[in-house]
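Review form for a predicted model. The reviewer records the input and the model, then writes brief findings.
Reviewer: anonymous (R2)
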Amino acid sequence: MPVYSGTLTVGTTPIQVDGNFNQWSHIHIRNNDQTKSLYIGNGNVSISNGLPLDKLATIDFDLPPNDSFHMVTDSGTVSVSYLRIDH
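Model under review:
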């Protein structure tokens, strides 16, 4: 089971996180910002339709093969850390 990790900066334009997945993958996401929320969803994610991830919060979920997810914030930029484990 390969393990991948990284940190990226999310802004007000949706950004794809870690590409498309070729197999089932477990994702652990951490919002490193102390004041701003992130919003998670598909390529059209926005602050009105995304799943909110509050400041300093983490979330885990599984993604099926050939899928991806995106994030956006409502202002400025947010640092995000992720850990992906492929099944």
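Findings: The chain has a mean pLDDT of 93.
Further findings: The two ends are 6 Å apart (CA to CA).
Recommendation: see findings above.
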